[in-house]
Amino acid sequence: MLMLQRVSKARVAGPAGALLRWSSTVRLTAESYPQVKRQDFCQITPQAVDFFKSVVGESAVVTDPDDLLFYNEDQMRKYRGQSSLCVKPKTTQQVSEIVKYCHEHKLALVPQGGNTGLVGGSVPVFDEIVLSLSGMNKIRSFDHTSGILKADAGLILENADNFLAEKGYIFPLDLGAKGSCHIGGNVAANAGGLRLLRYGSLHGSVLGLEVVLPDGTIYDSMNALRKDNTGYDLKQLFIGSEGTLGVITGVSILCPARPKAVNIAFLGLESYEAVQNTFKRARSELCEILSAFEFMDRQSQWQAKRFLKTLHPLAQDDPDVDVPEYPFYVLIETSGSCKEHDDAKLETFLESVMEDGTVADGVVSQDESQLKTLWTWREGISEASNMDGGVYKYDVSLPLPVMYDLIEVLRARLDEHGLRSISDASKPVVDVVGYGHIGDGNVHVNVVVREYNKTVEKCLEPYVYQWISDHHGSISAEHGLGFQKKNYIGYSKSEVEIALMKDIKSKFDPQGIMNPYKSSSAEANGSRFDLSASSYARSSTAMSSPLSRRLLKIKKKIPPIRIDAPTAPPTAPPMMAPLLDDLESERELESADADADDKLVDCVIYTTVVCFEPSLLTVDVSTVAVTVGDVDELELWELVVGVSVGVCVEDVDSCVELEELDVCVVCAVLNEDDDGIDDDEDGDSVLDDTLDQPVLEDTPELDQLSYASLSLSPYTV
Amino acid sequence: MSSKIRILLPVKRVIDAALKPRINKAQTGVESTGVKFSINPFDDIAVEEAIKIRNAHKDKVESIHAVSIGPSKAQDILRVALAKGADTSTLVDVKDQEVEPLQVSKILKKLQEKHNSNLIILGKQAIDDDSNQTGQMLAGILNWPQATNASKVKINEDNTVEVEREIDGGVEVVKASLPMIITTDLRLNEPKFVTLPKMMKAKKKPLEILTVEDLGITIEHRLQTCKLEDPPVRQGGAKVSSVDELVSKLKELNAI
């Protein structure tokens, strides 16, 4: 109850009240994802604002709602926070003082770099203070001999690279957003980018960091050496921590010598197999000069064409053709120190792949401006995908042979549900495009949409994560977890790994003030449900079988097992998120009716079938009893082997629809005098037909509001 | 003169237009070691225009011959010209010597005579020395009509050529009969990429290498570069907090 009250207060009296003044079309994250509740942080007080002003000066504190929009909204226009305060410190000491104050006053904050993140990790969700590093943009030092660059975290990547270019060096990272992203943000997100193939990941090139820890302490390893095996390599923890362990304020990074000769070849290929063959050949024949190998499908080029509005590199002889018919395109970059050597090598390679038909057509850049133009056909896809209204981005690592299958599977799935059309504007999805870094086994799947839409989201998630997990991939190769993928970590990491991450987070940030609501390893509660997440991922193939339908119908009365209610309310298990989401929106819809007849629902049981083996299903049925608060016995919902149950009994004025989503089941337990299920089924779930409705049994009456949660280990019989 | 068109395409190898040139330590020229070289962008436009003319008048254009005067590495840009559609090419190898526009014009005249060209299309200037003289001097030596800074070229059936030039406040149209010289401006066309199959075919096209001696010319230098300097760095602006401060600052700078 406490939690619910807090939420509703935050909704009414919180910064959302100022909503009307804001001229943004992006939906508030808190509205789009009502299942995410504001945690128990303090509100920003005028004293706090005064304090920050005294630290950084009047001009570096932003409180104007219009100006704040820039810091509240992510670049994909998918997430919008409600922060009423942005602070822009200029020194590490100032950052430390700000963080210390937040620590002492339990104020949540979001460190923000260039705000170019793709998973909503850099924007607030509720009223977290935005700590923008844009004021810290100085180069501290550069060693001409070793190539070690030390700089403030807020330095823009392109500026860093331009500076290094003058000195004959190159920043070991390059990505599409280089004009606005900060190097500190790059490190925090462990960005991969276009040159990872050549220069490796930031885990290797970052030599040291300066980080303000969540209590204001400054961790400084800026003077680190290339070789230093004394104790744990702590800086690695912050690389990819997405601002949940501290605020990166300084970066020391090893920069390689800038290649003097760069060549680009842009090729058209007939099949995905040819792409793989070309990659194999490029690796062996171009060897040390190969610096990027990017692939793009025809659909992505079509999007880019609409965006760039120039002649496609391979449509030179026929200006009427938008994009030539080749289904795949590859961009190869070579960089080396001797142009003649590189040219000869590239030429020999291209001739051989052209002659044996691996490559159907291609162009090679003749000068610098052509080189840049060719890159735009790869780099522009990201922006082009966002043109129609929105984009669902999945940045995944997959084994090369199955990498492109994912895109085809998604297209088929969206077609099956009648959601995709390039020309028909009434369909929410324009197309699914695939491109990425073949060299790193990393594909970007962009679902180009005309609007952000729950039906599409439900159709895609968690299906896409499940598919990736089934094929031994990672659900986030280089974009991080952020807000978008925080609930899905279980698909890529084991329970042991997740538990360790949680321990680390609670050690660094016991109050959870650093970038809350992101990257689920950072969340304090709900660890048990994460267990179910990973189990769920493992069993996902079995779930889609017809067996799972039968499963849901099995019911049996069993003696109760008493389990003490834990003190903390259960956090929804990851795959339940879309369900809860539905419940919330359903409540909003029904709230008018509910006013007339209070207490339609006393108890909601969320059950989630998380893990089972088909062989066990037919014979063994284990049961779970839940004791809620002072109610001794609850009707027992009998659940299959390896079930995780979250029980949430609420005194909520609303009607809850019996819902299901793929393998998740939500059961509404209603009072006796109500006929039960809300029949309004014209709902939005496109997956309704995948499962039969579970059957509702008689239900007890519950007045007490409390929480309990339990989970059973997978595979127990 | 026959009614067929034989195009001569002089192209120059220059430091890539997208790179920022650096002045060498001795301040006598631009640093050229370890720097990327490409075809002069205006010459690239000239090549593109020649190909366009051929595509539009297949029966009229008899040959396209590309020529470059420069070091042996200038073969690279001749290959590009060949890949784009030139039939034959000549490199006049002058090693690393600077060749002044007048000398260039004399060499080109020899090549015009050799190939009996009646239309010469070249960039209005090379982006390295920005002389903007070769086309004009060549017209003078040959005593041909010239249409400089072309933004549109139209070949008529009677072998007259109409050329549009962008001038202050409008467009000027000039007309002449072949033989003539056209120098290209930026907006004449947009050069395209060369496809790999064409690049491969270009390797088999003829590339003749000559020296200036072969053409009976000796290179002489009539110009002397005294010194090269970077333009002065722009001073950063400053903020003032009041009108009074602004006025006093302006007075300080003798601006008012």
TrEMBL record, chain A:
Keywords: FAD, Flavoprotein, Metal-binding, Mitochondrion, Oxidoreductase, Transit peptide, Zinc
Residue ranges of domain FAD-binding PCMH-type in the record: 79-258
Cofactor: FAD
Compartments, record wording: Mitochondrion
GO molecular function (one): metal ion binding
One Gene Ontology CC term in the entry: mitochondrion
Catalytic activity: (R)-lactate + 2 Fe(III)-[cytochrome c] = 2 Fe(II)-[cytochrome c] + pyruvate + 2 H(+); (R)-malate + A = oxaloacetate + AH2; (R)-2-hydroxyglutarate + pyruvate = (R)-lactate + 2-oxoglutarate
EC numbers on record: 1.1.99.39, 1.1.99.40
GO biological process, one term: lactate metabolic process
Annotated family: Belongs to the FAD-binding oxidoreductase/transferase type 4 family.
Described purpose of this protein according to its UniProt entry: Catalyzes the oxidation of D-2-hydroxyglutarate (D-2-HG) to alpha-ketoglutarate. Also catalyzes the oxidation of other D-2-hydroxyacids, such as D-malate (D-MAL) and D-lactate (D-LAC). Exhibits high activities towards D-2-HG and D-MAL but a very weak activity towards D-LAC.
Record's protein name: D-2-hydroxyglutarate dehydrogenase, mitochondrial
TrEMBL record, chain B:
SUPFAM superfamilies recorded: Adenine nucleotide alpha hydrolases-like
Native organism: Ogataea polymorpha
InterPro entries xref list: ET-Flavoprotein_bsu_CS, ETF_a/b_N, ETF_b, ETF_beta_N, Rossmann-like_a/b/a_fold
Location(s) in or outside the cell: Mitochondrion matrix
Name of the protein: Probable electron transfer flavoprotein subunit beta
GO molecular function: electron transfer activity
Gene Ontology process terms (BP): amino acid catabolic process; fatty acid beta-oxidation using acyl-CoA dehydrogenase
Cofactor(s) the record lists: AMP; FAD
Function per UniProt: The electron transfer flavoprotein serves as a specific electron acceptor for several dehydrogenases, including five acyl-CoA dehydrogenases, glutaryl-CoA and sarcosine dehydrogenase. It transfers the electrons to the main mitochondrial respiratory chain via ETF-ubiquinone oxidoreductase (ETF dehydrogenase).
Assembly behavior: Heterodimer of an alpha and a beta subunit.
Annotated Pfam families: ETF
Family: Belongs to the ETF beta-subunit/FixA family.
Main location: mitochondrion
Gene3D superfamilies, per database record: HUPs
PROSITE patterns: ETF_BETA (PS01065)
